[in-house]
Amino acid sequence: METSLFELKPGMIVSQTICDSKGLILIARGIVLTESYIKRLRNFRIQSLMIQVEANTPSLPANSPAVQHTIHTLTTLCKSLEAEKKIDLQANVFKIEQIMYAILERPFIQSFLEIDPQNTYLLLHSLRTTIIALNMGLYHGYDYLNLEYLGMCALLHDCGMGQEFQEENAEHTLLGFDKLRQNLDIDMIISLVCLQHHECFDGSGPLGFRRLQITEFARLITVADHYDRLMMKNNSPRQALIKIAGSSGSRFDPYMVKLFEATFEKS
Questions:
Q1: Which of 20, 60, 118, 139 could make a disulfide contact with 122, Cβ separation 3.0–4.6 Å?
Q2: What pTM value is reported for the model?
């Protein structure tokens, strides 16, 4: 139900996600409005908002095998990344785990893990990319809402590959976008990041998006994604960092490269 800004009241549940021009989240579907959120909408001159009139679909059990396996794997990967001194997670590991727990409570994420499971190779890549991306997001200073959406984007960015990791599958971004758009519970920003995460800052990517045409989350995640791909090819952390820095301004957004460098373990 569309409701004008002046009719909004604390306790109402939002049924749409609204982003700013960069693709950052101003208000998200499922959020319970507070005076603070309403003030935020007024500051951004939002005129009206879709409000939920029906109850949410109940989520799958939080102790489902796929969710529990993902939580266990996440904890193991965080410890591994810290121990191997690739990414400096020390200050943020607890926050990253808490954001991921919130993400795993979402019904469509649980359904994805249960119904469309990834093989171990792809799941590990998706989770490592998510950890790296969230760490970058924390260094950048995203609020909790945007961190949650950044994490969901990263977790699902390679869903177009299906159950297998196929590095040279050039169509997986389009396949993933189509798959995500079939689920009405998934916000467009998540689908768009899936579509754009192999686009290049200079416009030389597969679909020709360039610079700010690429949503901010996609520009961030493409760095995290590529770093993990380089590590999977047995590059050392330093070699991977040098290769990413060498593509700053062409393949990658220079700001996102500097942001990633700031999260790198100092020796």
A1: 118
A2: 0.81
